[in-house]
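README: folding subset

This subset contains proteins for which both the sequence and a predicted structure token string are available. Records are stored as plain text. Below is the entry for Glycosyl transferases group 1 (853 residues), shown exactly as it appears on disk.
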Amino acid sequence: MTGLWGISFDATPISGVVVEFVKTAKHFADRGVPVVLDLGYDIKADKDAFFRPYQDEAQLLPEWVRLGRIAGVEQIPGYDRDFVAEVLREVVGRGEGTHLLPRIDSIAERLSDLIVAAWEANDIEYVLVENGTLPENITYTKALHLAIEKYGRNRGRYVLWRDHDLMWQSEPSSGKYGVYPYPATPKPPNSPHIHYLALHDQARRKTLEWAPHLRAIDVLPNTFTHRKATIHTGNADFRSDYGIPARAPLIARCTRIIRQKRIDRDLHLLAGIPDAVLFVAGDTTESPDEYRRLVALARQLGVTDRVVFGGWLAPHEDDIGRSTGCKYSVRDLLAHADLVSFLTSFDYESYGNPVGEAIASGVPYVTTRYELYDTVYGSKGFRAPLLTDDLPDEDFIGQVRDLLTDEEERAEMAEHNFRLGERDFGTARDLLDRLVLVPMDEQVRLSVILPVYNEAANLPAVLDSLYHQRGLDRSTYEVVLVDNNSTDNTAEIAKTFAAEHPDLAVHVIPEPEQGVSCARRTGMQFASVRSRGRVNAEERFYLVSADADCRVDEDWLYELFVAMESGKAAIGVCDYYYSAEHFAGRPRLWDAITKTLRCRAVTFALFGGFPDGKGFAVDRDVHDRVGGIEIFYQLQDGRFVNHLSDDWDFGIKVRGSGEDIGYVPRSRVEINPRRVDHAIDEVIAGRAYGSDGIIVMRDIRPQAEGTGADLTEEQARQAWDFSVKDFTPKNTILPVLLTPSLLDDDAVIEFFGPSLAERLGRRIAEIKDEMRMTDFTPIHSYKTPSYRLYFEFADEIFARLRATVGDDIGYPPPLPPCLQDVSPDRFTEFVKYYCEDRESGEAHNYFGNGGVF
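--- output ---
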């Protein structure tokens, strides 16, 4: 059975790095993947563990982790602890030691062959590297890079490379790893086999500043199981076993006993709280000098009898499964603790796992404001006393003493942090599923994203149409169905379809936040991340949006794919149509619909249009670069709701970034007539999706099927007015507003006419300067200037539409009553006031609020 090989550059049996490895590896183990862990004894020089045989280390880890290491390393001439220490000191720290470079390369080559042999012997399918970039042993890092390429032939992205510490966040003041740009540290290669993981956004940003060539790097925060630690029969004797008085306030310090952790601060804190006990959970043998120093300091401060050096405790069982090596776990300590302490060095910790463990266990904590504390915890609203001086002063000691004596305050603080942690620190399962556990075949070039909510009636036909696409082999595309909290059997239908059609990859994933925008965003992120694991990851890859209530033509996907492959556009926009048979006997309604479609055909051919969720494709790299689908929120009846126009806003972001949008008229989607029939009175009034500026998704299923009655002449005129008012600012003005250079295109000049094109360009520049707008990305930012330009040029634009689409387009709908009485010489001035008045929502209502047809 294929397995996972983990390698930790920490060279200790239990540490925060090892615990995070085990948490991550458990996702693989739960799926039956055997897990092997190399503790890195033969990597790091300062742990005095080089070539030391494993003894009882396995007892500290869950039984499903098997310890392993690279056989034959000790037989490589010149590779030992002294060599690694010399390279770190001379080459990395001082930037010297050029005489060592040939030996480094020679040993790395030998090492790489041994690593490959170990992976082959263990039938390894996945590799997880922990902290391999930190230049403690650049020889081993280079060997890993070589081994990954050798073993990776004909494989996709099978390596997760996670850095818990990097040069700029691990004691940079010491100069141990040199100075920026760290020339001796091997930069991570942009390998088709490696997906890099950073612990937080700041680490990812700094990594890309140092190594901007990386393309596959995501944030995977440390994760904690949120379950409050409690006293139970298995840990009830914890205090008595360690000689801790039952009522004594207990401060827990879970840490390695090394100087950088600053346990001396805890001893000074303890001296100021005479009735408290400090429990230090860590290996006293790792740094004997530091342990002796702390013991002497405790004696000097008179707290020896209130300090318990308890040795290693097992990691949390909830995170890694059963551990047999220790009677008690960290969670058992936290169940009895009143407070968790983390008074670490300023520039040492990159994440601060003990803080996260305290939050997840429902225990209050105290900490220093170390360098990354605000990034990981403080900025998110977690509450705790913070030490800002070198040693605890009277003020800080007083805060801690008060917290220990105020049970109600401790409970309130712990509950606040616990709830916040539940929201902000989920598990890694979702991202891991995207990265590795749901692999993508190397032939896949397109992912079709299908958001669904209670679509059991429509879904079989939609999936069947996706299955029977012509022109493309089914191995070249997949379907990602995003179930948005359906209460019917939508998900079951999709899973059954997938099982019955194994030649088409169909993935069903959930999105708990309600709204088609949220579902589309999740599906695209899912496909984007996984697509970077393909062997041919540098090929152009496309994310394709579809709607579950619409039908795609047989050539829909093929035409999109051909257009994207042959052109430079970042987005390809489909053509949309209604079937005339659904509107038989309703000629006035059908006339209003077809006029809208004819106008769209003309302007889309000129400007490319904007993506609509019913059907568009986007280049994955562009999708990622602009930040993907962005959700805007609005207040409706006192609560936040997500805005419906995510597809349009996404197109605006793409076009605003300088990319092109292309119209693909041969890629066609039939719009479900229920979008018109669900509330014909709202269609007529132009409020199909909202009013007063609030545009939200609604369930648009009609209560009863049927063709319905035709519109009256007055209703048909009203429906057309709202349709064309919604259409014109978006499809004839917005494209040139975002990309004024379009007005230099011969076809666009011919459409507008030279005079109108020139005046439009000049007026756009004036409005941009007046509004100081350079970014029209947010939906309300692009609406206002588009609306203003519409009123100023409506007569001329409609004249051009009549000339190019047909006389039946007619003339602009009547002005709002408030503008009809404005004198011509002040018309432009009052248009500005009207369009800028967002509080009333009048302009939004006038222009139809989200479209009609």
